[in-house]
Design brief:
Number of strands: 12
CATH topology: Glutamine Phosphoribosylpyrophosphate, subunit 1, domain 1
Largest sheet: 8 strands, mixed
Distance between the termini: 22 Å
Radius of gyration: 16 Å
CATH class: Alpha Beta
Shape: globular
Number of helices: 6
Order of helices and strands: EHHEEHEEEEEHHHEEEE
Number of domains: 1
CATH architecture: 4-Layer Sandwich
Strand order of the largest sheet: 4-3-2-6-5-1-11-12
CATH superfamily: (Glycosyl)asparaginase
Length: about 270
């Protein structure tokens, strides 16, 4: 039986969080949850994910949108992707300079001719608008709506001092984001590791084999830790029954979930 109560979970990056950033991270995570959840009243899981991520791109607290880090040439190049699991549709953009990369990724998905488009495509650079108060990292969201739609999305500014044109995991289905009729997953961490493991895809495979989403996410994160050590990945996910899970091997991961009127958010220890 399908879960029919809308649920939204978001993350603001797994990484070297410190205590002084705790309150700012929690505040913006809660704001993103509230903003995204509003869309369930007039839209679907797609709109909930897009609006939650767009808020985080605009708030300047995370490595996405105006909080994006600069590459070696001092420019911003951002990546984002979104996937609707029930229809297997996906859209993504890489190395763009748009105000909200997640909205550009949505356009690609809705257009339907391609999955991934690369390059600035005429957008203006956001370098002069960059926030100086970034506390988090890559952002993402997963959602399940009343109709049983599962959606995952991720957006990032990449890594500091990256080579121009570098693309991480965030716009790659199966790596930075993935959704199927079973699960929706968003990843955060070191793209060069995530691209080689495809953790979001692995979570879906494990769930298809009978594991709970909680066990699947923990198993994938533990696998990456065994291969590459700690400090490189975090995952959030929701399954078709409405079970939400999050796990990471970094110091902290800003994350939260909203289930109707209940909001839970954490940066360090805590289960969502």
């Amino acid at each position: 039986m399908r879960y029919t109560k809308p649920i939204l979970a978001v993350h603001g990056g797994a990484g070297e969080w410190n205590k002084r950033d705790y309150e700012r991270g929690l505040k913006e995570i809660k704001n993103a949850l509230e903003r995204g959840y509003e869309e369930f009243r007039r839209g679907s899981a797609i709109e909930a994910v897009v609006e939650a991520i767009a808020y985080m791109e605009d708030c300047g607290a995370f490595d996405a949108g105006i909080g994006s880090v600069k590459n070696l040439e001092g420019e911003i190049e951002m990546d984002a992707g979104i996937m609707h699991g029930n229809t297997w549709r996906a859209g993504a953009v890489a190395s763009v300079k748009a105000k909200n990369p997640i909205r550009e990724a949505l356009k690609v998905m809705l257009d339907g001719r391609h999955v991934l488009l690369v390059g600035d495509r005429g957008e203006k650079s956001l370098t002069k608008y960059v926030s100086n108060n970034v506390v988090g990292d890559t952002v993402g969201a997963v959602a399940l709506d009343e109709q049983g739609n599962l959606v995952a999305g991720t957006s990032t500014g990449g890594i500091s001092n990256k080579l121009p044109g570098r693309v991480g995991d965030s716009p790659i289905p199966g790596a930075g984001f993935y959704a199927t009729p079973r699960v929706a997953v968003s990843s955060t961490g070191i793209g060069e590791i995530i691209l080689r493991i495809l953790p979001a895809k692995e979570v879906d495979i494990l769930v298809s084999m009978g594991l709970s989403i909680d066990d699947a996410i923990r198993s994938v994160v533990n696998k990456i830790t065994e291969l590459f050590g700690k400090g490189n990945v975090g995952l959030i996910g929701v399954d078709f029954k409405g079970n939400v899970s999050a796990y990471y091997n970094t110091v902290g991961m800003a994350r939260g979930v909203k289930d109707r009127n209940v909001v839970r958010a954490f940066v360090f220890e805590g289960e969502i």
